[in-house]
Design goal:
Radius of gyration: 38 Å
Oligomer: single chain
Number of domains: 2
Low-confidence stretches: 61-97, 317-325
Number of strands: 11
Structural class: alpha+beta
Helix content: 55-70%
Mean pLDDT: 81
Number of helices: 21
Length: 490
């Protein structure tokens, strides 16, 4: 769980950093060509790429039973000396060291809490400095007047944002200036900037360790203010001088507070940028609209590229959901040689492992379909390919007493002493099933009568299975005699 969180955090950090670098590179040209509103719209790319990073990546559908490279299976068996069989699955790759995942997650969580607590403590201190708020009206706009002068104007709050003006608002600003200032704050309100600032806070808190995020937040708030200025001046282009005078009257502000869209600012560079923007010719409505379309296309392409760049997730799908390649198993199960040959020529996977069935060769060997077995082997099927729980070709044919198939597989080099977890050996299976002729054939070609396998079954103590013990347990006296004659001792 902790390692998954760390991996997700790394992915999200990479996506957010990439998005911010793109935005920072484009905001200058965007401001010149599309205006301040186009530059502000670019910031939508950051949450888009973050969202994409949290979505599941592309899916690669794999046929059921094909071994996945992420796991390496290790299994051994025991001999009569009593060494124990071991089966284990070990990840070949781990996204992060398990011993570091939990401490990293803990440190990250502490950082998030501290970042959020610090932001809200500053916000509470600012609101406390306002004193009691008195609802009133100024220039036809509903506002709240603070108890103290020289704090504001500003918009505070997330869910119920309010425009707050200082106690000396009427004395400090002329009527036309008050109208422009309040129009600016109303743009923040109608555009939903308080919620945008909340999102910025959450991103900054989640990536508190990333200096690029902190540096970018100030640029985001700068573009937000410039975009508001552009909207107001677009409606009243003749009021540029009054707007500049209103800005200069409130050059000392609160800084960037999470729940505040503030008219004044402590940032001298922002003040200069806002004043300088007043002399800039605004792009035409057509250019702004085209610019927004371009921004949307860039954001969409960037989001898709980020999503497609994620490593594909492998999904193991059942046979009936895959399609043409798995038709080989169906053809083999029906004994349809012509169809099986056609599917093989079409590039079917000869060594497909289907849970509950095995490989096509295992299915054919189990059924004793010698012609199909020949076709598969001659076409390149792995003769010793195993499927724990479904055996291997030699074990499956031995268990069913398919003597001709057993002879053919041995003649093609099948390992007579191959051990398959959960299925033991060909000799154990033949002895257990009472297939005397198959037992003779296996012994004649080197099957070890003393090769035993340690078995662990739920609710039972581990025990050994050997050809002799299985033949005796099932009452096959002729096989017991034959095994003893070949040196079986237990």
């Amino acid at each position: 769980m902790a390692s998954d969180l760390v991996v997700l955090l790394f992915k999200a950090t990479a996506a957010v950093s990439a998005g911010l670098l793109i935005i920072l590179a484009l905001r200058g040209p965007a401001t010149r060509w599309l205006g301040a509103q186009g530059a502000y719209a670019l910031w939508l790319m950051a949450p888009l790429l973050l969202t994409v990073a949290l979505l599941p990546g592309p899916v690669r559908v794999a046929e059921a039973g094909i071994p996945h490279p992420a796991l390496v299976a290790i299994s051994t068996v025991t001999d009569m000396a009593g060494s124990k069989a071991v089966a284990a699955a070990t990840p070949a790759w781990s996204p992060s060291p398990a011993d570091l995942a939990l401490p990293l997650g803990f440190v990250w969580g502490i950082g998030v809490v501290v970042s959020l607590a610090t932001a809200f403590r500053r916000q509470r201190a600012f609101e406390a400095a306002l004193g009691a708020l008195t609802p009133c009206e100024s220039e036809g706009v509903a506002v709240h007047r603070a108890a103290h002068p020289d704090i504001g104007p500003a918009m505070i709050g997330f869910l119920r944002p309010r425009i707050v003006v200082p106690a000396n608002f009427a004395e400090l600003y002329a009527p036309d200036e008050r109208r422009l200032v309040l129009a600016h704050e109303q743009v923040h309100l109608h555009r939903g900037d308080p919620l945008a600032n909340l999102m910025a806070l959450l991103v900054r808190s989640a990536f508190w360790f990333n200096p690029l995020v902190h540096w970018s937040e100030a640029r985001f708030r700068m573009d937000q203010e410039l975009a508001c200025d552009a909207v107001v001046l677009g409606r009243a282009p003749s009021d540029r001088r009054r707007y500049a005078e209103a800005l200069l009257k409130a050059q000392f502000g609160t800084g960037w507070l999470v729940g505040t869209c503030s008219w004044p600012t402590r940032d001298a560079s922002l003040l200069k940028a806002r004043v300088a923007s007043l002399t800039r010719v605004q792009p035409s409505t057509r250019r702004r609209r085209m610019g927004l379309v371009v921004v949307a296309l860039v954001a969409s392409c960037g989001g898709y590229a980020a999503w497609a760049a994620q490593p594909a997730r492998t999904v193991i799908a059942p046979r009936h959901l895959i399609g043409p390649k798995t038709s080989l198993l169906r053809a083999v199960s029906r004994g349809d040689l012509a169809q099986a040959r056609a599917v093989i020529q079409g590039g079917a996977n000869l060594n497909l492992v289907e849970r509950g069935e095995g490989t096509p060769l295992i299915v054919a060997a189990r059924a004793g379909d010698l012609a199909m077995v020949r076709l598969l082997v001659e076409s390149g099927a792995a003769i010793d390919q195993s499927a724990p729980g479904d055996a291997n070709p030699l074990i499956a044919s031995s268990r069913q007493g398919r003597l001709e198939t057993v002879r053919y597989l041995i003649g093609k080099g099948a390992d007579v002493n191959k051990v398959v977890p959960l299925d033991e050996t060909a000799l154990i299976n033949a002895a257990s099933a009472g297939k005397l002729e198959v037992v003779e054939e296996l012994l004649a070609h080197g099957a070890d009568p003393n090769l035993a396998v340690m078995v662990e079954e739920q609710g039972r103590r581990p025990f050994q299975r050997s050809p002799l013990s299985e033949a005796g347990r099932h009452g096959h006296a002729d096989i017991v005699q034959l095994l003893r004659a070949h040196g079986a001792i237990a």
